[in-house]
Structures are given as structure tokens and as C-alpha cells.
Specification:
disordered N terminus; 7 helices
Length: 118
């Protein structure tokens, strides 16, 4: 199904190097900034500092449970107050500062996924 393909695509484009952050010597993020960075780096697969379409789509699928269509990407960028190529860490931090409950929910989901998907 289309949903299965979306989830499989996320598993392919979300690198396991970020999931290893919570194991070994690295402490679990505790400050708001660390939590935002943890979420952001999980989906910034190429490390360029932007969530391009595929990366943002993976975030939306895994964390929000929503498929992101290519034509809706620009609208979502506008909603997040960013330009294409996509959101940067500062956009996620601003979103989380405006709504700490969203940060806790999304960070918790991300942390759980990191523990389950190696």
C-alpha cells in the first residue's frame, strides 16, 4: 500500500547514525535546545542543515503520521516561516518554543523510534 511504501522510504532515508546518539557515552538530551537538535538531526540525513522534501516527508510520516505530498511542501514551509530548501534547526526551535507540549511529544516519539530502529 502507499502507506507501507512511505514508512519503508522513511526507514531508508533516516540514517541509523542518529539513532546511536542515545547509546554509549552520549547522554539523553535534556534541555529544550538539545531535544530540538536531536529531532532535527534524526531527519537531516545529509547533514546540510535543512530538511529538504524527503527529510521533511519522513518527519511528517513518522512523527505526525501524515503523508507529505510534494505540492504541499512549499505551503508547509510557509507555515513554518521558512523558505525552500526547507526548515532549519532554528525553525524547529521556534516552533517548539511556541508550543513546548509539541516538543515533548515529538521528542518522545523520536527518542522511542531511536531505541526501536537500529
Amino acid at each position: 500500500s502507499k502507506a507501507t511504501v512511505s514508512v519503508l522510504n522513511c526507514l531508508v532515508i533516516c540514517p541509523s547514525r542518529h539513532q546511536k546518539m542515545m547509546f554509549g557515552a552520549a547522554p539523553i538530551p535534556s534541555t529544550d535546545g538539545e531535544k530540538a537538535k536531536f529531532v532535527f538531526t534524526r531527519y537531516d540525513k545529509d547533514g546540510d542543515g535543512f530538511w529538504k522534501f524527503a527529510e521533511f516527508a519522513c518527519f511528517m510520516q513518522e512523527i505526525k503520521g501524515e503523508a507529505l505530498e510534494k505540492d504541499a511542501f512549499a505551503d508547509l514551509c510557509q507555515e513554518w516561516d521558512c523558505d525552500v530548501p526547507g526548515p532549519e534547526l532554528e525553525h524547529l526551535e521556534a516552533r517548539y518554543k511556541a508550543n513546548p507540549a509539541v516538543m515533548e511529544q515529538e521528542f518522545g516519539m523520536c527518542l522511542g523510534l531511536s531505541a526501536c530502529i537500529a
